[in-house]
UniProtKB/TrEMBL annotation:
<dbReference type="InterPro" id="IPR050194">
    <property type="entry name" value="Glycosyltransferase_grp1"/>
</dbReference>
<dbReference type="InterPro" id="IPR001296">
    <property type="entry name" value="Glyco_trans_1"/>
</dbReference>
<feature type="domain" description="Glycosyltransferase subfamily 4-like N-terminal">
    <location>
        <begin position="30"/>
        <end position="207"/>
    </location>
</feature>
<keyword id="KW-0808">Transferase</keyword>
<dbReference type="Pfam" id="PF13439">
    <property type="entry name" value="Glyco_transf_4"/>
</dbReference>
<feature type="domain" description="Glycosyl transferase family 1">
    <location>
        <begin position="223"/>
        <end position="383"/>
    </location>
</feature>
<dbReference type="InterPro" id="IPR028098">
    <property type="entry name" value="Glyco_trans_4-like_N"/>
</dbReference>
<protein>
    <submittedName>
        <fullName>Glycogen synthase</fullName>
    </submittedName>
</protein>
<dbReference type="Pfam" id="PF00534">
    <property type="entry name" value="Glycos_transf_1"/>
</dbReference>
<keyword id="KW-0328">Glycosyltransferase</keyword>
Length: 442
């Protein structure tokens, strides 16, 4: 599939002053968002831009520091945050945004900014408040959507509220960034924003960090492989990642490939059900749950596999596919979301329909049954990652999105009322449920 994500030649732009907002940033790493924001910020700084990241505090981390060329401000929790947020993500998010806003306003005491860059709905209130207060363009990266995570079903009030905040943030932003053509289409449809407002900028990967030494790869293979092929999975253990379909495909694969082993790296709330399904199928000696593996262990493990499988039902981008490709693993991925834009069948890996264990087994069988083919697509995938998804390239494309947002914001600023409050906005009606979101609601 071709999208404007394939266009990687971006003319350099002049240095810009960026205020980055994220609820994750090292040492706080919950999922992939924190790693993305860190790598992007460092790459932007290396390209000459001034980057200030405002994020949540972590025990033992300084409230303010400069690291890797990036200024980092961490917002300490207010004294009432913990009891307020017990059992409620929405309550915690509101409390977090209050302290995040104050920390970001402190940043403006000693620095000026050209653009605000927000990451996902969890920082929406801070982002919109700052953009309106400072009269700055707001760029928002939508890493995923609540509707997408739930396959279009928003069953609870919390789900509908998150969807409403995403809708509000999308429409309040000067420009949106989507990590894939798939996500661009989802954002424009769900949130009723014009396609020309959305730039497709994929996630990046430091391919050098994922190239393990041959000795480490051999050690991982000796530890996890049996007398046959080694199949790998890495990621969160949640329903939408589709690991259940990998488990259901293992009996067919094992019958055809004696000695086969499957390594599942990662953790999450679905792990218990996956382990129970493994026991029901009698796969205890074939499937191993390794738990969380950090970035010092995972590259060697992925590099040791004969095939790494990404069986997601919903995948806005598919970061683990890039990381596995950089590690040298042959890829078998579900033909869904952003994954379909990363892997070209027969060239950089193989694909299969999601939620289809027999098709998954057939795709993996192509790789483990033909070593020459598997190594060829693995080499081509690794080359593609370095060429298209390096962080310098991603930073340049992001900086270009900032420059476009600033150009688009200037005429809008000129039309603002000279005095008094900003012109009121019409409320946005969300198509799911009866939630009505205005400029200060949620």
């Amino acid at each position: 599939m071709s999208t404007n994500a394939d266009v990687i030649d971006i003319n350099p732009v002049r240095p810009q002053r960026v205020l980055m907002l994220s609820w994750e940033y090292p040492p706080v790493l919950v999922g992939g968002l924190g790693r993305h924001v860190h790598a992007l910020s460092v790459a932007l700084a290396a390209a000459g831009h001034e980057v200030t990241v405002v994020t949540r505090h972590a025990d033992g981390a300084p409230l303010s520091e400069r690291r890797d060329g990036v200024r980092i401000l961490r917002a300490a929790e207010d004294p009432v945050t913990f009891p307020l947020a017990t059992g409620s993500l929405l309550a915690w998010t509101m409390a977090f945004n209050h302290t995040l806003t104050r920390a970001a306003l402190h940043a403006t005491d000693t620095a000026e900014f050209d653009v605000i860059h927000a990451h996902d709905w969890l920082v929406a209130h801070t982002a919109i408040t700052l953009a309106e207060h400072l009269h700055l363009p707001l760029v928002t990266t939508m890493h995923a959507t609540e509707a997408g995570r739930h396959q279009g079903w928003l069953p609870e009030e919390m789900n509908r509220t998150i969807h409403g905040v995403e809708h509000w943030l999308s429409n309040a932003s000067t420009r949106l960034i989507a990590c894939s053509g798939y996500m661009r289409d989802q954002v424009t449809t769900l949130f009723e924003v014009p396609e020309e407002k959305v730039a497709v900028v994929p996630n990046g990967v430091d391919d050098r960090a994922w190239r393990a030494r041959p000795r480490a790869v051999a050690s991982a293979r000796a530890r996890f492989a049996g007398d046959g092929p080694l199949i790998g999975y890495a990621g969160r253990l949640v329903y939408e990642k589709g690991v259940q379909h990998l488990v259901d495909a293992v009996p067919q694969l094992r019958d055809r490939h004696p000695g086969l082993r499957v390594l599942i790296a990662g953790d999450g709330p679905y792990r218990g059900e996956l382990e129970e399904r493994t026991r029901q199928l009698g796969l205890g000696g074939t499937v191993r749950f390794a738990g969380f593996l950090d970035n010092t262990q995972l590259p060697a493990v992925l590099g040791a596999t004969d095939a790494t499988v990404v069986p997601s039902l919903y995948e806005p981008f598919g970061m683990v596919a890039l990381e596995a490709a950089a590690a040298g693993a042959p890829l078998a991925v579900a033909r869904t979301g952003g994954l379909a834009e990363i892997v070209e069948p027969g060239v950089t890996g193989v694909t299969f329909p999601h939620s289809d264990p027999p098709a998954l087994a057939g795709a993996v069988g192509q790789l483990i049954g033909d070593e020459v083919f598997a190594r060829r697509v693995a080499r081509q995938a690794r080359s593609m990652v370095g060429r298209r998804y390096g962080w310098a390239t991603i930073a340049a494309r992001t900086a270009h999105a900032y420059a476009v947002a600033r150009r688009e914001h200037a005429p809008a600023q000129a039309r603002r009322p000279a005095v008094g409050l900003p012109a009121p906005r019409r409320p946005i009606t969300i198509p799911h449920g009866n939630l009505l979101v205005g400029t200060a609601a949620c």
